[in-house]
Amino acid sequence: QVQLVESGGGLVQAGGSLRLSCAVSGVIFRFYGMDWYRQAPGKQRELVAAIGSGGSTNYADSVKGRFTISRDNAKNTVYLQMNTLKPEDTAVYYCTVATSGYWGQGTQVTVSS
């Protein structure tokens, strides 16, 4: 059974930082790319960052230079380091095994102004 468990969300002031984690089980983690998405109220879910099985990364323009995606294959975990947070980053953040259809339950990030 595939499971993805996100953690690390919370309430932070604008300009602050958070680090999200997503622990994955039930797949051979190192073989898969991993994505972070987010969904704000009333908006569509959007891709925030992606990391390939080999470590290549891609970011949405809105987070480039502020967010960093990384992975630890020994821990079957993907991370999203979020710096210089803005109120518009407020959303539920989800991790997913790329193209698999497997999603975590999401973690709320709220950035106050």
Number of helices: 0
Terminus-to-terminus distance: 40 Å
Mean pLDDT: 96
Report the strand count.
Answer: 11
- Which radius of gyration do the C-alpha atoms yield? 13 Å
Apparent shape: globular
Spans of 5+ residues with little confidence (pLDDT < 50)? none
Described by strand count, sense and barrel closure, the largest sheet is: 7 strands, mixed
Q: What fraction, in percent, of the residue positions are helical? A: under 10%
Structural class: mainly beta
- What share of the residues does DSSP label as strand, in percent? over 45%
Structural overview:
This protein has 113 residues and is mostly beta strands. The chain is 0% helix and 52% strand. It has no helices and eleven strands. Strand 9 (91-97) and strand 10 form a beta hairpin. The N and C termini lie far apart (40 Å).
Mind sketching the topology for me?
Elements: E1 3-7, E2 10-13, E3 18-25, E4 34-39, E5 46-51, E6 57-59, E7 67-72, E8 77-82, E9 91-97, E10 102-103, E11 107-112
Parallel strand pairs: 2-11
Antiparallel strand pairs: 1-3, 3-8, 4-5, 4-9, 5-6, 7-8, 9-10, 9-11
Task: Name a few traits of the molecule.
113 residues; mainly beta
In short:
This protein has strands at 3-7, 10-13, 18-25, 34-39, 46-51, 57-59, 67-72, 77-82, 91-97, 102-103, 107-112. It is mainly beta and 113 residues long.
